[in-house]
Specification:
Layout: H1 3-61, E1 78-79, E2 84-90, E3 93-98, H2 100-106, E4 111-113, E5 120-121, E6 126-132, E7 135-140, E8 145-150, H3 158-161, E9 170-173, H4 177-180, H5 187-204, H6 209-212, H7 229-240
Antiparallel strand pairs: 1-2, 2-3, 3-9, 4-6, 5-8, 6-7, 8-9
């Protein structure tokens, strides 16, 4: 090989070596400068992402409210298909009242006919009567037993304002309540049943839907006074299992 050519090749290799060394000499300080900032950026991104992920997880964990139906059904008591409720209060005694469906149907209660103390009531038989705009509405007892107390507050608006609380109507000594409870509904079963009741009621009041429903499609208080006499008789028979005519209508 020509001596001049060999010298040129060695010179080129030396230049390549010097360039590589120069690149490394420049890269090492740059890497030392950039690495902490990249790490800090990664930490910042991670810190920003954690609250966002936590917020999404928290939002997913928050239970969505269940759709609210036409009629309220609280926990802790049982409903009879004739729309009276029963709640055990200890000592073998049970409170009895009219449910929210009855409240909505009868509207303003002018009076309540309650049985005398010592009266024996039977599950599925009339026990008390609500007097409303459409006339009397007999209500059947959800339990068997002996009436030991009645609620005078029911006559002054408690049935309308607090049907499941201060609006209780009878206190009954009910030694067979566990057996009676087999014919009653509670919890999710009661709510599902009440939703079906609302659906069936809508079908009954369809011809009178305008006056019977308020804005938003919920029933006005006192449906009985807004529907025709035939619809009222059907409501009383189908939903309360009783006969009731609108007085003078």
């Amino acid at each position: 090989m020509d001596t001049g050519m060999l010298s040129d090749l060695q010179t080129a290799k030396a230049i390549e070596y010097l360039l590589a060394v120069g690149f490394l000499a420049l890269f090492v300080p740059f890497w030392r400068y950039a690495t902490p900032r990249v790490a800090a950026l990664a930490v910042a991104v991670e810190k920003a992402a954690v609250p966002a992920v936590a917020a999404v997880a928290a939002e997913a964990a928050v239970p969505r409210p269940e759709p609210v139906g036409w009629f309220h059904v609280p926990d802790g008591l049982s409903l009879h298909p004739g729309h009276a409720w029963a709640k055990a209060v200890g000592g073998g005694e049970v409170l009895v009242g009219a449910d929210d469906f009855a409240r909505a149907v009868i509207g303003r209660v002018h009076d309540v006919d309650l049985p005398p103390l010592g009266t024996v009531v039977r599950q599925g038989e009339p026990a008390f009567t609500l007097q409303g705009a459409a006339g009397p509405l007999p209500m059947i007892s959800p339990v068997d037993g002996l009436v030991v107390a009645t609620n005078p507050s029911a006559r002054i608006g408690a049935v309308e304002s607090d049907p499941y609380g201060n609006g209780w109507l009878l206190r009954v000594q009910a030694p067979q309540f566990k057996r009676n409870a087999r014919q009653l509904l509670s919890g999710s079963a009661a709510r599902a049943w009440m939703e079906d009741v609302a659906r069936r009621l809508r079908g009954v009041i369809a011809p009178d839907l305008g006056p019977a429903l308020a804005d938003g499609g919920v029933p006005v208080a006192g449906i009985a006074g807004e529907v025709g006499p035939e619809a009222w008789r059907q409501i009383a028979k189908e939903f309360f299992f009783v006969e009731s005519d609108r007085g003078g209508v």
